[in-house]
Amino acid sequence: KMGFSLIAHNAVEADIIADNAIIGAGKFAEINFQPQHINWSAYTNDWNVGASDTAWAGILQTANLAKANGMEFFIGLDVLVGDEIETLPAGWTANFAYAPLRASFKNWAHRVAVELQPVYFVITMEDNEYFVGDHAADWTNYISLVNETIAIIKSVNPNIKVGPSVQYEQLTGVAPGSTAHWAILNEYTDADFIAITTYPQIAYATFSAIPSTYYSQIKSHTSLPVYVGESGWSDSCTTYPTACTAAQQLSFLTFLLNEAEALTSEVFIWYFAADWSWGGYGEIFENMGLRDENFAVKSNWSKWLAYRARSIIHGAKLYGAKIY
Predict the structure, then answer these.
(1) Distances (CA, A) of 145 to 96, 109, 138, 188, 297
(2) Is 35's pLDDT higher than 90?
(3) Best exposed site among 126, 159, 221, 286 by fewest CB in 10 Å?
């Protein structure tokens, strides 16, 4: 199932709705991945908190927009900022043993399962960054929280597929300053999948520098299904000028789609549907779109469409591929 995360070229609500309608009408994506945050103080005692979570209406609107445009909803719980737990309510302790944090984490996930019924649920996004960020003493607390939360989600709907996402360049040890830590993949004992987020421009000067076994090696470290939970390659930037070209983006997109096929990945997310001109993500990420800052198609959009149209009988293993 192929899809995007950010289906928008700016933050204007009318344009976001229009952009999603274009993707939906053209059947250009089957799935929409949306990272979301917990309103921590609202969920310490119960999951059924109604409008007291003032952020919930926006989450519901996002889910409904995807579904209205024929896309399955894939939600990701984002509780980290880099390798630290995000800002918590005043007086809270930032570790995964802290009882109010654990309660809110589980109650929020419970509400998602009941009210949103996502097909896929990532708990927690890029969680290995916490592991490598000098938090080894808290890691067992985190893993126990993940497994307890998965049990709650499955009690609501056993068909929701749940798993973590890991930052792949960190996991493999190719990101600057990182060391490989494959062993953590064995700790997700109750997960249905491992999702990877991958942006190899942070590690490789050109596409050709990426080893041919870069993605296939993960199957030596986990028996769980592997999803491409986020991916991208910039076609224009000053930070990595050698790698940031349309040709390099095309080479990477083609390679990653083929690798996902070889891994029989059920999900493939290219994060940015379009270039983003409103700031906040950083130059390299804001130019990863396959459509431009006005949502017009760019040259590599045709590769995306070619894979969307691949038939199972011609050997495509991307689940849900259809001919249109």
Answers:
(1) 7, 11, 11, 11, 43
(2) yes
(3) 159
CA–CA gap between residue 13 and residue 18 (Å, rounded): 9
Q: What is the pLDDT of residues 226-265, one digit of tens each?
A: 999 999 999 999 888 888 999 999 999 999 999 999 999 9
Residue bearing the bigger pLDDT, 312 or 51: 51
- pLDDT confidence tier of residue 22, bands split at 50, 70 and 90: very high
Contact 174, 200 (CB under 8 A): yes
User: What amino acid is encoded at 305 in this protein?
Assistant: L
Task: Look at the chain and count its residues.
Answer: 324
Burial classification of residue 150, based on how many CB atoms lie within 10 Å of its CB (0-12 exposed, 13-18 middle, 19 or more buried): buried
What mean pLDDT comes out for the span 120-147? 94
Amino acid (one-letter) located at 239: T
SS3 category, 255: helix
Strand order in the sheet with 226-231: 161-163, 120-123, 72-77, 31-36, 2-6, 268-272, 226-231, 194-198, 165-167
Can you give the pLDDT at residue 314? 38
Beta bridge partners of 165: 195
Q: pTM score, two decimals?
A: 0.94
Tell me which H or E stretch contains 72: strand 72-77
* Closest residue by Cα to residue 186 from 204, 171, 197: 171
Name the percent of the chain in helix, strand, coil, to the closest 5: 40, 15, 45
- What is the number of H-type helices and E-type strands within the chain? 9, 11
Distance CA 50, CA 54 (A): 9
| CA distance to 85, 217, 267, per residue, from 93 (Å) | 10, 37, 35
Task: Read off the pLDDT of residues 213-223 as tens digits, 9 standing for 90 and up.
Answer: 999 999 999 99
Report the alpha-carbon distance of residue 11 to residue 16 in Å, rounded.
Answer: 7
Cβ–Cβ under 8 Å, residues 194 and 214: no
Contact 43, 111 (CB under 8 A): yes
For 283-314, letters b (16+ CB in 10 Å) and e give: ebbbbbbbbeeebeebebbeebeebbebeeee
